[in-house]
Each structure stands twice: as structure tokens, then as C-alpha cells.
């Protein structure tokens, strides 16, 4: 009899075969083209950012958006053609993945228009953009590809349970292995910053899971047959290019470069995991991709500060060095994982991985992550702080003229200190109490009426809305390193007799002919520190319990790891022929750590210079203005990268000038651009700003130019090219920069005030003598920045003429 049966099953349609190799050739060419466009574009964009930073040129906001549009068109166009035109499912799968990666790269790169200082806002936008793209791509992929035919999940598998399967656990283990190096070399930022970085990494993981999920692998290798070599090699290459596109968009200011190196090898890991899943009778699904990519990107996104991946720190073993180390180790781990997973999981007769073994592997890696983070790593949160500048600043008008010389200067300094502290106490009380209740650890300042406090964007927005607050600056805090850089050491022979720069400005004639060496004058140095044991500097230290302050590490004795501060102070007061005023005394403060500062650290040192205090003392109650140094040398500037705006330190220099303390500051090394004297305190009118010339009295190319707003800057120039001076460890070094020129002018002031103590604190007469006795300096051909004064000021400082004029006065 006839059996009743259902209709015959419809055959699964097989894709038509291509008639030639051209689609494959086009796919290979498109993949190579995508890499050649993406990698150089990202590296070049970062280098341009660095050049802009180093040269002091205004940041081009439209730069990265332009790169985004060009990259998306150059990569996305050919990729879209692959996704639409060929009949090969594999080629079309590659085209779809690369098109999605190009769109994601373009959209994420647009976000770099946000200033790097607002890192939390950038991370929030990055996470939102990646999540939105994942949603859009997932819907478009489902509409374009239709349902993916896959074997039904069996009980106990990843498809039938919510528990992660063996393949997902192995993917998580691989991601943790790639994360390990970053936990060793890096450190976390603030709490919100860390959470947002984790969300951004997770969102990119979800996006990668959509682009490289079941539809991708089903298109790349149609059917259910396991083809290990094709899955690992071809799938790994296609997935690697996709991951490179995603990584290029994940991060700013150089944080995207590590991911661009270490993510592509993980494409082969994904291929091996797909083979392992198919050995178990089912596709891997998106979960392994999500875990692997999210954990791999969490390292560079969460454990590095993008503002510290800068060429400004590349001269020592600082963040750029350790980021390179972390990237190299993570890349090696990724390559080893690709080889190991390929050998263990992708063999033709390999058994499906067991969930128990995979769980133990992931657990062991998780334990290793905890150990590395807690032992050789830098556990804790190291987010930026905020500097809250209040609207009301102290009224320093109507100060009594007082007696000439140091007695009058000390009286003015005491009155300035009293008014500043009184204003801070009267206006900060309520806000300080509120911040303390919120456990935001406020630190009061008086030289600028301000409060440093913890807090992220939400706290900043709340503070900015308070009526007593003028503005809120981001106060940068460098993240710790796994190991301190080796201390700087000099390699230049010990000078014999006066150095060329000392002779060029006539300081040696002041010693020999006028008998003036700077005795009785105190020079204050705010810099990277001072090697207090250096033979050229040890004898000049003023001593006492209020002549040295280190707000970074609170070291009790003068020390200097970087060497910059030792070199600059040596040019001011060093003995053995290197310093302009070898008979002067010095006091010091550390306002730079690893060549980085912040508004609060600069204020720490400037406050100490107005009213020194003993170790552990309170600057607002224990200051001693009668012990203030006479002249300050400042070979530093506070750019926007460190959190300063143009007016950040303006009340501070105004208060020091009112107290009769002369502030000498470097013009900067961002020449030959016009108007490049921009970073505080160099542009301020009450600061004596110094540019640099070479042996032939010609303005150096690097010396920053004016004008500074409406003011003519610099005020003077001094030797700043190939200047020899002291360096830590008892040695010497030759350096270039307006940093080297600045302390020589401070030394000339010390000679003038030593020759005529009645001039101490008389800043107007001192400036007038310096400018009237300056000698002409040469301007390079073609150097035009307004008037000559905007290039070399009044000219080259002349110590001999200035001291004679001071003595005659």
C-alpha cells in the first residue's frame, strides 16, 4: 500500500561557481589596499598631531575628520564593490566584513575632533558609536544574507545553554593572555575613565562579533564541512584585516596604534576557534569574537593615558617606551596564540575542546591577570584631578612702596602673602567643606585663588555652574610606570674656565673686572629638580628647612632624575665657569615629573617661592615670605596638554611681581612660527621672557617668536644653542633650548642686585637697565614676525654693561 509522506525537502541552493580567479585576486588586492591605506594613515595622523604639539601650532580640529572621510572612501569603496559584485560567497563575505570595518573606522575617527584633554567624553562617544554601529550592521547583515543555515544546538552546547561553551572560554583565555602585558606596563586612570574604557572595548567586541559572526564564516566556507586550512588561513587573513580596521578607530592620540599592531594576528585565533567549534558540530557564534576583541582592546584603551603617548616623553623610558614594550609583548603573545591554537584546535583530526579543560585554562589566565596586576603592576586608580579657579582674586593694589632693597621687598612680600591667604580663606570655605563632605579631597591654593580636587566630567560640570567659580581646569596627573627611568648622567668633559656662553654675555668680565659674583642674592629654580651634590652646585645651596620642596615625591634633599633642572640652575649660579652668578645662593622646587607638569604643581612651586615653608608645612599658614628668593628662573611652560588655559597662572605672576620677585621665563622652543610664545607664563607682561641665540648671536630656529597677544615678546635673548652646564651625577652635558638661555638672564639679574642691593625688588628699573644695555642680535634671513622686537626683544643680554649700569644707578 502507498505510505503518505510529506513534500520532499527542498535542496539547499549552492552558490554558483566563479569562472576565473579574478574575484580572488580582487579580494587580495582590496585587503592589501585596506592595510596600506589604514596603517600609514593612522601613523601619519599621529605624527602630525605630535608635530603640532611640539611646534606649538594650534590644533587642527578638522584634521582627523578629514582622515576619517578619506580613509572610509578609499577603503570602503573597493570593499563595498566586493560585497556586491562577485558571485563568490567567500569574496562577498570578505567585502561585507571590510565594508563594515571601513565604516566603523571612519565613524570612530571622526570622534578625534574632541580635545584629548576630555578623554572621558571621547570614550563615552566611542562606546556609543561602536554599539550603534553594531546594531545597524547586525540588522543590515540579517536582511542581506537571510537566515544562516547551521546545525541545531544540542543539549549542553553553547547554543542550548547560557553558560559559555568551550570555544568561548578559550577565546576569553586568549584575550586575557593578550591583556597580561598591559597590566604589567600600564596603569588605570580614574574610575569613570576606566569604566568608559571598558565599555568602549566591550562595544568594539560586540561590533567585531557582528562583522565576524556566523554569517561571515558561513559565507567564507559554505556548508557544514570543516576545512581547517581554509578556515584558519583564509579566514584568519580576512578577519585580521577587519580587526585592523576596527583597531585603527579604537583610541586617540596614539592609543589606537597598539591595537593596530596586536589585533590582526588574532584573526587566525578566531579561525582556529571556528574550526574547533565545527569539530563539535556547530558554528562558534559571536561570543568568542566578542570576548577576544574586547579583552585585547581593554589593555591599550584602559591602561594607557593617550596624552602621555607623546614624543615629548619619548627621549626617556617613559610612557611611550612602555607602551612600545607592552605592544611588542602583546603582539608576540597574539602570534603564539595563533600558532598554538592553530596546531591544537585546527588539525584535521583534532577533537572538539572540552569545556572543563577550557574552563581551567581561562581560570588560570584570570588568576595570572590578578597576580600580574597586584604584584608587578600598578594597582589603583590614577585619574586626573581638577583645578577650580574662583572668580574673586586678591586685590593687590595700593601696596606701600617701602624702603629700597631687600627690606622693602620683604615687607611687600609679607603684605602680598597676607592678602592672598586672607582672600583664599574668606572665599573658599563653603566650597572646601562641600568637597570634603563629598570625599573629593580638596587642596586649597592662594597664589591663584583656587582649589584642586578629585572629580570627573560630572563634578566638573557641577563646579562650573557654581556662582563663585570662574572656570575649572583639568589638572593632569601622570600615571605611574613599572620602573623608573635610569637617572640622567652627563657625558661632556668638565669645562675648563668660563664656558663660551658665559663669555659671550660678558659675565666673566663682571667677575674679574668688577669683582661681582652674585653674593647675597638668592635664585629660585622651579624645574625637574636639582642634583644638590653636584660639585658646581652643592656650595651654593642656601640650606635650612625651607630651601627645597618636592610636591611630587616629597623628597627631603635636592635631587634630579631628568637633569633639566640641574642644567638650567647650573647656568644661573653654577661654579667652575658654567654659571653667570657663581656667588649667588639657590633654592629649588620640583614642578616637573618626567617632563610633565600640571597647573597645580606649577602653583605648588610658585607658592613656595613667594613664601617658603618647612617640610610638611601648610602653605597657607606656615609660609615665610621674608625667606623668598629674589629672582626666579623658569624654564618651563604650561600648554593645554597639561591643563592650562592662557590665563591659568596670570594671578600668580602678578602676585610675585607685586611682591618684588622677578620672574624670568623661557619663551619656548616652538619656533620659527610667529605668535608661538603662547604657553603660560611666557606671554605675561610682568614676566621677563627670554629667547635663544647661538654663538654668532643669531636667533635660533627653535626659539619661539612673538607677538604674544598685543605685547612684544620676547623681552631679551641669551645663548641657548649647545650650552654646557651641570648634569646629575657630577657630570656635564650640552643642551639646546630657550630653557638654557633663561637662567643666564636670571644670573645677570643676580649680578646686578649683588652689585647694587638697593635694586632688589625694583623690577621696573631692573628691566629698564637690562633692555637699555642689551646688544644687537642677528635675525635670520626671511624671519618675519612683525617687528624685530617680536623676534629678539631688546637684543642679547649684556651682563657687563648691565652690572655697570646697576652699580652706577
Automatic annotation (TrEMBL):
Transmembrane segments in this chain: where? 21-43, 63-85, 121-138, 166-184, 196-219, 231-251, 257-276, 288-304, 319-344, 356-375
Q: Name one GO molecular function term.
A: serine-type endopeptidase activity
Q: What is one GO biological process annotated to this record?
A: proteolysis
Which keywords annotate this record?
Hydrolase, Membrane, Protease, Serine protease, Transmembrane, Transmembrane helix
- InterPro entries listed in its UniProt record: Peptidase_S8/S53_dom (IPR000209), Peptidase_S8/S53_dom_sf (IPR036852), Peptidase_S8/S53_subtilisin (IPR051048), Peptidase_S8_Ser-AS (IPR023828), Peptidase_S8_subtilisin-rel (IPR015500)
| Domain of life per record | Bacteria
Cite the SUPFAM superfamilies for this sequence.
Subtilisin-like
What Pfam families is this protein classified in?
Peptidase_S8 (PF00082)
Positions of the catalytic residues:
527 (charge relay system), 564 (charge relay system), 739 (charge relay system)
User: Could you tell me which residues belong to the region Disordered?
Assistant: 478-497
Q: Which residues form the Peptidase S8/S53 domain?
A: 518-777
The UniProt similarity line reads: Belongs to the peptidase S8 family.
In its UniProt entry, what is this protein called?
S8 family serine peptidase
Q: Which organism is it from?
A: Micromonospora robiginosa
Amino acid at each position: 500500500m502507498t505510505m503518505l509522506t510529506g513534500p520532499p525537502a527542498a535542496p539547499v541552493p549552492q552558490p554558483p561557481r566563479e569562472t576565473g580567479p579574478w574575484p580572488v585576486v580582487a579580494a587580495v588586492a582590496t585587503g592589501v589596499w585596506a592595510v596600506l591605506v589604514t596603517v600609514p594613515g593612522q601613523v601619519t595622523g599621529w605624527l602630525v598631531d605630535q608635530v603640532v604639539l611640539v611646534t606649538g601650532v594650534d590644533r587642527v580640529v578638522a584634521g582627523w575628520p578629514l582622515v576619517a572621510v578619506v580613509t572610509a572612501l578609499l577603503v570602503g569603496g573597493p570593499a563595498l564593490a566586493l560585497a556586491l559584485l562577485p558571485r563568490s560567497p567567500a569574496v562577498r563575505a570578505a567585502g561585507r566584513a571590510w565594508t563594515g570595518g571601513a565604516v566603523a573606522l571612519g565613524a570612530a575617527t571622526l570622534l578625534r575632533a574632541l580635545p584629548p584633554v576630555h578623554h572621558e567624553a571621547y570614550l563615552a562617544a566611542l562606546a556609543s558609536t561602536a554599539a550603534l554601529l553594531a546594531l545597524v550592521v547586525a540588522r543590515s547583515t540579517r536582511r542581506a544574507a537571510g537566515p544562516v543555515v547551521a546545525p541545531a544546538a544540542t543539549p549542553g552546547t553553547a547554543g542550548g545553554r547560557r553558560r559559555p561553551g568551550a570555544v568561548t572560554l578559550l577565546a576569553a583565555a586568549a584575550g586575557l593572555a593578550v591583556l597580561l602585558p598591559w597590566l604589567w606596563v600600564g596603569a588605570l586612570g580614574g574610575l569613570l575613565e576606566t569604566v568608559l574604557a571598558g565599555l568602549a572595548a566591550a562595544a568594539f567586541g560586540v561590533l567585531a562579533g557582528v562583522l565576524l559572526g556566523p554569517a561571515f564564516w558561513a559565507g567564507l566556507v559554505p556548508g557544514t564541512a570543516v576545512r581547517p586550512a581554509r578556515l584558519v588561513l583564509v579566514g584568519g587573513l580576512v578577519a585580521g584585516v577587519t580587526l585592523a580596521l576596527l583597531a585603527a578607530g579604537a583610541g586617540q592620540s596614539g592609543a589606537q596604534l597598539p591595537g593596530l599592531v596586536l589585533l590582526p594576528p588574532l584573526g587566525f585565533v578566531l579561525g582556529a576557534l571556528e574550526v574547533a567549534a565545527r569539530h563539535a558540530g556547530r558554528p562558534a557564534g559571536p561570543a568568542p569574537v566578542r570576548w577576544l576583541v574586547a579583552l585585547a582592546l581593554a589593555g591599550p584603551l584602559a591602561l594607557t593615558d593617550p596624552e602621555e603617548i607623546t614624543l615629548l616623553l619619548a627621549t626617556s623610558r617613559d610612557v611611550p617606551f612602555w607602551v612600545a614594550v607592552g605592544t611588542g609583548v602583546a603582539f608576540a603573545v597574539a602570534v603564539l596564540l595563533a600558532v598554538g591554537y592553530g596546531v591544537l584546535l585546527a588539525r584535521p583530526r583534532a577533537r572538539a575542546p572540552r569545556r572543563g579543560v577550557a574552563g581551567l585554562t581561562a581560570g588560570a589566565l584570570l588568576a595570572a591577570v590578578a597576580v600580574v596586576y597586584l604584584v608587578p603592576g600598578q594597582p589603583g586608580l590614577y585619574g586626573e584631578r581638577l583645578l577650580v579657579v574662583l572668580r574673586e582674586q586678591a586685590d593687590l593694589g595700593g601696596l606701600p612702596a617701602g624702603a629700597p632693597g631687600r627690606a622693602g621687598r620683604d615687607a611687600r612680600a609679607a603684605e602680598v602673602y597676607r592678602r592672598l591667604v586672607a582672600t583664599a580663606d574668606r572665599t573658599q570655605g563653603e566650597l572646601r567643606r562641600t568637597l570634603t563632605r563629598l570625599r573629593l579631597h580638596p587642596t586649597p591654593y592662594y597664589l591663584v585663588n583656587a582649589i584642586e580636587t578629585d572629580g570627573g566630567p560630572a563634578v566638573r560640570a557641577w563646579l562650573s555652574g557654581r556662582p563663585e567659580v570662574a572656570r575649572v581646569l583639568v589638572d593632569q596627573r601622570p600615571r605611574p610606570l613599572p620602573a623608573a627611568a635610569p637617572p640622567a648622567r652627563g657625558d661632556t668633559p668638565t669645562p675648563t674656565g668660563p664656558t663660551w656662553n658665559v663669555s659671550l654675555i660678558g659675565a666673566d668680565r663682571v667677575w674679574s673686572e668688577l669683582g661681582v659674583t652674585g653674593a647675597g642674592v638668592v635664585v629660585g629654580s622651579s624645574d625637574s629638580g636639582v642634583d644638590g651634590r653636584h660639585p658646581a652646585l652643592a656650595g651654593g645651596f642656601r640650606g635650612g628647612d625651607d630651601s627645597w620642596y618636592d610636591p611630587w615625591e616629597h623628597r627631603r634633599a635636592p635631587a634630579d632624575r631628568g637633569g633639566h633642572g640641574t642644567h638650567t640652575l647650573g647656568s644661573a649660579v653654577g661654579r667652575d665657569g658654567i654659571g653667570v652668578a657663581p656667588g649667588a645662593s639657590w633654592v629649588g622646587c620640583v614642578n616637573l615629573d618626567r617632563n610633565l607638569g600640571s597647573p597645580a604643581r606649577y602653583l605648588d612651586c610658585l607658592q613656595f617661592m613667594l613664601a617658603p615653608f618647612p617640610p610638611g608645612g601648610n602653605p597657607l599658614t606656615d609660609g615665610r615670605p621674608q625667606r623668598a628668593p629674589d629672582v626666579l628662573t623658569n624654564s618651563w611652560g604650561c600648554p593645554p596638554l597639561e591643563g592650562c588655559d592662557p590665563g591659568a597662572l596670570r594671578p600668580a605672576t602678578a602676585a610675585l611681581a607685586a611682591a618684588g620677585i622677578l620672574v624670568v621665563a623661557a619663551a619656548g622652543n616652538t619656533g620659527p612660527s610667529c605668535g608661538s610664545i603662547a604657553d603660560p607664563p611666557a606671554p605675561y607682561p610682568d614676566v621677563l621672557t627670554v629667547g635663544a641665540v647661538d654663538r654668532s648671536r643669531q636667533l635660533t630656529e627653535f626659539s619661539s617668536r612673538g607677538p604674544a597677544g598685543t605685547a612684544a615678546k620676547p623681552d631679551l635673548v641669551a645663548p641657548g644653542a649647545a650650552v654646557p652646564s651641570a648634569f646629575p651625577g657630577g657630570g656635564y652635558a650640552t643642551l639646546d633650548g630657550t630653557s638654557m638661555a633663561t637662567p643666564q638672564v636670571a644670573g645677570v639679574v643676580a649680578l646686578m642686585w649683588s652689585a647694587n642691593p638697593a635694586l632688589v625688588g625694583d623690577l621696573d628699573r631692573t628691566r629698564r637697565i637690562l633692555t637699555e644695555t642689551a646688544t644687537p642680535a642677528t635675525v635670520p634671513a626671511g624671519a618675519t614676525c612683525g617687528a624685530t622686537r617680536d623676534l629678539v626683544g631688546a637684543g642679547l643680554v649684556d651682563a657687563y654693561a648691565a652690572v655697570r649700569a646697576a652699580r652706577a644707578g
